[in-house]
Every structure is written in structure tokens, then in C-alpha cells.
What does this fold into?
Amino acid sequence: MKNKSTQTKKNCMNEWLNDCMKNLIHSSIHTIILISVFTSFSFAQFKLPEYEKTILENGITLYLMEQHEVPLIYVSAVFPAGAIWDETQSGLAAFTADALLFGSKNYTKQQIDETFDFLGASISSYAEKERAVIKMSCKKSDLDALLPIFIDVITRPVFPKEEIEKRKQRWLAELEQDKQSPRRVILSYFNKFLFDQNVYGNPVDGTQSSIKEITSEDVAGFFGMHYLHTFTGIAVVGDFSTDEMKTKMISMLPKVPSLERLNLMKDINKDISRLDGNRVLLVNKDDSRETTFLIGGYGVAWNNKDLIKIEVVNTILGGRFTSWLNDELRINAGLTYGAKSTFNTYRQAGTFYISTFTATENTVEAIDLALKVLDRLHTEGIDAEALLSAKNYIKGQFPPDYETSGNLADLLTTMFFYGLDDSYINDFEKNVGEMTVEEANKIAKRYFPKENLQFVLIGKADEIRDKVKKYGKVIEKNINEIGF
Amino acid sequence: MKHFFLFFLLTISILPQTKVEDIKTFTLKNGMKIIVLEDHSIPNANMYLFWKVGSRNEYPGITGISHFFEHMMFNGAKKYGPKQFDITMEASGGSNNASTSENLTVYTDWFPSSSLEVIFDLEADRIASLSFDDKMIESERGVILSERSTGLENYPLWELWEQVQAASFYAHPYHWPVIGYESDIKNWTKKDLETYFHTYYSPNNCVVVIAGDVMLDSVKSLSEKYFEPIATGPPPRELHTVEPEQKGEKIVNINRDVPAPYVMLAYHVPQTNFADYYALSLLESILSSGNTSRLYKNLVDDRQLAIEVSTDFSYAFDPFLFIIYGICNKGINPEFLEKAILTELDKIIKDGIKPEELQKVKNQKLMDFYHTMETINGKARNIGNYEMFFGNYKKMFSAPQDFAKVTAEDIQRVAKKYFTADNRTVGFLQSSESEKEEIK
It folds into this structure.
């Protein structure tokens, strides 16, 4: 919200419409593209920079990548400690990740905060649906002062009761605050509506009732179960020498493996129920002047072999400014500031959704138009010109995603967590380049839902209730009700 | 703590690879200034066009037109008709965005460097011969109403910000919001747009920054080919309205159903190119940057009075605002939070700041500088901002030293000078029936 006074053409929706696959896009060389005349562009190729990967004796996987452009160092650590493991305590994973910075065996919260702040460095931690991530960045010259703290935080946190209680109280107020913004909470409603009792429906930040019950012991217990060496990946990227950094990391990290109690996916609920017809979740917010909505269904998991091709097709449907959705809903109809479609990809599941918002009185017009565009993908299909443009766009926008050492550290931990090897990045060009129109249309038919659509609408229920019945069975909630 | 100071001195001498002399500039015959930074770290480049026009150049009846105009720049010109700007750019591997503030309208293109000429062609076309299609105007009007509505819908703070800023300025055009009043958005005409275009979109009112995988010579020849033939117009009239000195605290109250009240304090401060900028900027960091900042540490973390406290001290051509805002924690009334914020400001006015506190925020500024210099986008954006607001892009490179010169006394002095009751506007946003529990 920094400097709210700046208005922009089209980037207001990033916080909830982020596309998790965007970061796996690559550039290629020498492509001929068609606009209105034939024009040739050559794209230079992005290569994954060299790095060293070592599995340490304690079980931790360590990635080291030298980048000497600026005198900075980034460290990123990833753990299987996301919301899918919350079990009955919704929000426990996210709370635990947050609480890592409340103090460790050798450093109090105050010492951690003061040391990082004083040096202008940063440390942060958060949990997502499947993983928890703790990161730091600093000047090269400050690493020796900060790395011991970082390692203490991820291996020996102490979760003091007083800090836990303080944070809980603010967390509850924040949850209430979040419901003021439909944009901030609509994905939690959608995931819960779609996955129901399955763990992928767990709201990452928990609910008023679940957060209230969390204790310091719960947090410590969750840490003990999930921050395990065998499943930990740490990436260090920046201005250092690999040999020296490796010695340094080994000397600071625990010598022996942690006790392994987690059989990663074995203990979680993997059963995802089949969808049976269209359904509408209508969430009433009395003071709404617009309707915020998502339309979608199941998507694909990370291990899907067509992932990159799906991304190319999604670029055409709703992944850029000239996408069909934005073109129809924004540019032609003036119904919204922006419309797009997204695939969110997890280890064993995924979601697809169209997302936008419009004035209350235009709700049906906007939904009808979005459905018409989705249908066009199945009936009319994709032609050669659209495909070529999307390929060029994806390739051309790829290199800036990996421009900084921080971007590269994130990439390495993502590759570790989702079991991707270099070929995932290095075959990207081939996969995108070789994609044919026929293939694109097959992908569209196979992965973009046509039926069993799940609608989530947040808005003024009294004004739209009767009109949205036509989309499917309507289930109603009030935004003030606890949870999603 | 003494040895930390040594770190700071050392790091100045190992600044990132880009040096001031790497940046080249030239001015075309029509007055358009071009700034170029060759940086071949990735095969991409960007083009930023900084136009010296924003909502401060508007007047009642056409408020928001700078921003509307920014949208219209994507809706068709002579060679590239409606939609063709975006279609052509994305098919060439590029993307773009634009933003409008009170002071500037900035257009940005990010593209593979092999598409440089296409970008020049696209930009030159819309600058030289933008067209105003009636149908596009009407559809874009709907887009802007949606943009305004979605901001108000999702961010109560937006509503408070508009009102506090409006109350702070009664004479200067900073009075109205960048997005404009709803009634103006619904009523501006094609003629208003055409007049605006001819007044402000003349090449001599623009600075272009190009950074990335480009060669100076080719940028020069493409600039001469595409931008130089664009006819120049008379320079727009300078804005001469000066906001009279505020002579007493102003209070704004807004009723909106929110779970917790919002508080905002706004103090008038000088424009960016005024000498106090560096001290005020460091003061801002002392107040709100990081977990050990005064407001976060004392009000959010220790005393649990707020769930969020933040500040804003934006670049501006004319004297603008130093803003502090907070969202109350459960059971805290907004007047209580306001008093707690004022107490923190008073502590600085009365007791000043500690030497290590000053060193901390200087270290943070240096780290911010490094992060800016990590990407070609950060470099281009900051080169342009320094050129526009500080009068010279070279100031970006001396910023670490300019911050280093600020003393603890300077910070206490600016706090005392600007954080006065008479210079303040306070805003509250809360539910009308909200119970104001007294805090014991």
C-alpha cells in the first residue's frame, strides 16, 4: 500500500492472481514470428548458471551458486512444513514459520531483529500450502555476523510463550481485517469449496477459532515433525567462493541427521473427491459495491509432463494483457480493470481458475462473458498466430525472472522441493519451440475445464442471488462467519 | 558497535559494477532527452518514458484525466490502431505497464533486446499521432471506474488517504486524487483528451531511459530515426499555485464498517529537491523500517496497540506530505493510537536519536541501493526518478554519501521543524457505532 496515490495500467491484481508457474519460463533463439507482416526476432538463450549440489551427512541438501555481480549473498531454506500438514489446527504451519524468528537457542528475538536491522540485512519466513521458506540476504561482508543466527533460527528455535501469545492476538485481528478485502480471501474460499475436506483445502493462515487454540507446545511439536534435515534444502547464491562457503556451511550446520518421523505424503489425505456438476458459493458482503469472482476447478500437479505447454495455452486464455479474457472483459466491454486465468500447481494436486471483479450490477454480464471466452478455447481453438505470439511472449519475458541472486536461490529451493532437475529449465526452449497448433488444442481440451465448474462470488448477495442460480447449485455464506 | 561503522565505509568503496560514467545522455533536436545504460547481464532491455505530467497539472472538472490519458495511450494511433500496441509488443516478446502519480506519468516497456526497434516504432507512433476512438474512450471509462471501485472496495486505507490528502491541501492541485472524482471520470470528453495531449505530450516534456542489453550507437540512431521527427510544442505552463502555510491542526472523520479503526497523520514537508530530503528520508526509516524501527517496535511489537504501522514519504515536485498511518489492534481506540504515535515523534523531537540508530538506517539505505542496482529495471527506474525529482541522475550515485553526511542533530532538527501540531492533518476511519473502549 506504499504510495497509494499512484494509479497503474494493469498491475493491481498481482497479490492474488499470481501465477506460480511464471517462474519456469525460458528463452530461446532465432524464432520467426508473425504479426501483421513477417518479422524475425532472435532471443538470446538463458542457461541455468553452474551450481554445486551436495547432500550433507546430516541429510540436508545444499546448493551453492556463485554470482559476483553485486557484493550480496542470499540464503534460502525450504521445508515440508506447509498448511497441508495442519491437521486439526488450521494455520499451525504458517504460525510456526512466523514464530521461527521469535528467538533461538543462542539468540533472543531482540538480538535477531537488532543484528539484521542494523546491518541493513533482511530475514523472513513464511509458509505456503505445502512448504515453509526462510530466507535472508545481506552484504557479503556481513555474512559471518548473520549466518550463525540464520542457522540457529532454522535448527534451534525456542518459541517463547510470551511472543507466541502476542503474535496470536495480532494474527486474530489481521484475519478479521483480511475479510475486508474480497481479493485477499477469495482464494481461501475457492480452495475450501473445491477441495472440501482434503488437505489442499486448508486455509494457510488458519481461522479465528483455530488460531486462538494454538500454544507454544503445538508450535514446537510441529517444528519437530516437519523441519527435518532429510527434507531440507538450503541454497546459497551470491558473491562467495564455493569451497569456502561449503566448509563454512558444514561447520555451522548440525553434524547428525534429525530423527525422521515424517513419511512425506503418506500420512496426508490424498483423496480428492470427484466434482459432480456446477456449483456456486455465494459469499455475502453487505457493503460491497462490486462482485469479486473466481470460476474454475482442478488443475494439474507439478509432475505433469505437459506443464509448460499448459502455461503456453494459459498465456493465450488469461496470462497476459492481450489474453482473450482481458481483451473481452476489459478492453472490449469495459467491465473490469483486469481479468485473467491461473494454474496453481502443487505436488499432488492443482487448481485452475479465471479471476476478475466487476460492479455489482454487471455481475451476470461479466460471468457470462468469461464463460463464453472459456468455451471459445474448446470450440474455436487456438490458431498459429496466437500460438506464435504466446511462445514469443513467454520466451521474451523469461530472463528477468532469474536476474538476481535472490531469484536464483528461490529457483534452486523450488527445484529441490518439487524434485525438478536441470532439464526442466533446460528443455524449456525445446518444449515451447516445438509446440504445434494441434498440440495446443489438445492441451486446451484436456486441461481447461468445460464442465463441473466451481464458482465463488463475493459480493452483495441480495442483489445477485436470483441471477446467479442459473450457473449451478447455490451455497451461501456470510463473510463475517468464521473460516471459509 | 564501533566496528560496524567500518563496514559501512568499506562497502562504499565496493559499489556495484555500474558507475556514473557508464551512463550516457544525449538530447534530440526536438528537446527529448535520452539516457542510456548499457548492461549486458541479461539479453533483455527496458525503455522508460517519464512525462512531466500528473494530476497536479489538472483542474476541477477534469480531475483524473492524466491517468485516463495514460490508459488511452494504449488504445490506438496512426500506424498501430486500437489494440495493436499491446498485440505487437507481446508478439515481439515484450510487456509493458504505465503509472500515473500526482507528478509524473511513466510508461515502461520490458523486452528482449532484439525487439528494440519495434519498441521505438510503437512508442514513436503513439507519441506522434495518438488517435481517440470514441468506442475505446467509452470502454476505457468503464475500466477506470472499475479501477477506482476495486481500490475503494478492497482498501479502506485508500478512502482515508484520499480524504486526508484533500484536507491537507486546499489550494494546490495535490488536493484531488490521482484517479479523479467519479463524476469527472463519467464526464470528461474527447476534446479534453485532445487538449491534454497537445499540451503535455510534446517530446521536450519527456525524458527517456533505456537500460539493458543495447548499444549506445544503435539507441542513438533509432532515437534519431523514430523520436527526432516528432514535432515539438511550446513548453506547458508551469504550475504556480503554492499551498499556503497550514495554521492549525485539521481533523478528518470517515465512517465505514471496519473491524478495526484506521488512523493517519499527514505533515506538510518540502519537495524532493530540497536540502532536508535526506534527513527526512532517514527519519522515515527510523520510524518504520524493520522490526526495530521506533513505531513498529514500540507500538506493534511491544505494546500491541496496532496490527500495522507504516509511513509514506514520496517523491514530489512541490511541497508534499510525510504520512504516518496505523491500523488499531483489537480494543484499541484510534485516538489512543494517535497519541501513542505522537509520543514517539515527541521522543525524537525532545531526545533525538542514538548514534547506532543513525548508523542502522544509513546501512539500510546502502542495502536498498544495492538491491536497486541488482536489476536493469531497478537501474532504469531510479535513473529516471533521480533525473526527474533531484534534477540529475548523477544524484543517484552520490545518494549513499549524501545519506552518510546526515547527522543525528539533522534528524532531530527536521522532526522538530515539520512534526508540529499546526502543520498536521489527522484522519480517522472507523465504524460509526464502534465502541471506543478506554485503554487502562
